[in-house]
Amino acid sequence: MSADSTTSRLGGLAWFSLAGLCCLIAISLLASLLPLADPLRQDAFHTLAAPSLGHLLGTDGHGRDILSRVIYGSQVSLFTSISSIGMAAVLGTILGITAGYHNNWVEVVIMRVSDSLMALPSLILGIAIMAILGPGLDKVIFCIAFVMTPRFIRIAYGATMVVRPQEFIEAARAISAPFGRIFRVHILPNIVSEISVVAALWVGTAIQIEASLSFIGIGVPPPSPTWGNMIREGLDYLSMAPWIALAPSVAIFCTIILFNLAGDSIRDIIDPKHYRRA
Amino acid sequence: MIWTISKRIINVIPICFFVYTAVFFLLRIAPGDPATAMLGDYASASAVAALREEMGLNQPIFVQYLHGLIGLFKGDLGISLASGTPVVDQIRAALPYTLELATASLVIGVVLGVPLGTLSAVKDGKLIDHVSRIVSLAGLSIPSFVLGIILMLVFSIYLPLFPAVGGGGRGNWYETLVYLTLPSLTLGLIMMAYVTRVTRNAMMNVLSEDYIRTARSKGISERKVIMHHALPNCLVPLISLCAINFIMLVSSSVMVEIVFSRPGLGRVLVSAMLQRDYVSLQSVLVVYAFLIIVVNTFADILYSIANPRIRAK
Fold it and tell me: Model-level pTM?
């Protein structure tokens, strides 16, 4: 596919989503350089203040600046979701290819365990894992990676099953190429695009899971700002100060939309048939 | 046909067995001791030892596993460590709230999503198509608890039409309906987004089929072509979508039950987790998994009834 055709297939919406994501990541990374209030600084004289020039998105029940907390909260959401999806993609791809390539007990064990874990919805499984591990940023990352891994196993397994009977794999096996080499040189390059597309789409899912766990109170512990625990705090003040819950809600919604649009755009480039169908 | 249905029902048994095994070992192999986790780090060694004895944690893991499995077959899910009541009673009280929420949401999603998806496909590229695609994208991107809070803000706080929290008393259908409206609308609107997208794609594929062209060339009205020829052929992907999304609904119901304080299975799960009640936690997880397996099997059966080609296989 030429660069021109790739560029022309990227519509306005795709450029918008990619630009939006770049802005979001830049703001998140450069939060400490922006003229923002300390997200943890409490101000007893300005609790539940409505949005104003001093506090663009208002303040919460402890007088903390909501805008600052939303921006610092994005660091947690983005870091958690991207790193957990990265971990799940690597682990799931390795296990999925291994299961798809070996037509023996290895396949049975990996796929049955994976299917059993997929019988539970991601969030419910995530709650169970967090119940065991306890709250904490590293534990949330591990938890989301754990619940997302079976999905990647399923995708990598399916893609490997398509690639496995092809002649170049047969040829590699005929010359006694070891599994490691077939994995690295022949299978992985053929399925990596499919994995990248679902990874981009599932970052949104990971953000939802992270926010849900924080909302329940088992994610990243307070006072660290996360979108989920901000919404939870805002729920108590919903009738008096709705901006506390609404600001992080809008942030989550916009971020997930941007990731979904970006994922769709990458899929349209990689899989033109899907583009035409859509 | 009866053989196909029986085969699918028989297939459920090993899957349930695998799921129980996975949940059991997941909670056992994890780092940390459940008894210490429940009593806290400052509990005395004797208290932890007593609780370990009570929970049966001193027995070999395989014996614990067998005891749990036998109890499950007998319908005995153990005694809650937090409340001291049988877990099966807690689940029996909570399950109707979750099931009625998931069912009502599914109905709302299908009733709103199928017409919108059909209209979007028929009016491809027109304003209604763009609106439906934006609505669908928004629904796919909004977390259930965020939408729940927005609906609560609008319909309970600004316009006090529906109660913000609670599940309503059992036996009073009007009260049940009133308390169910906002939670089911929350999940129903998200479900609608999925249904709209799948109906649109399925309808677009069906509308380009030869038999649709033939029907049109015979002079049949467009409404009849859509309703009698195209829509029934979109049913098959819709059935599998409903099964897949029932899982999403059950999962999201946890969050919606927390937002609206509904006394459903999600609240039992979260309170078991917050109180470190591992007996209840394991049982609720198994019930969730069984529920999903049963729905998937039911959808498989419906799928084979709706699609003669699968039935023939």
Answer: 0.84
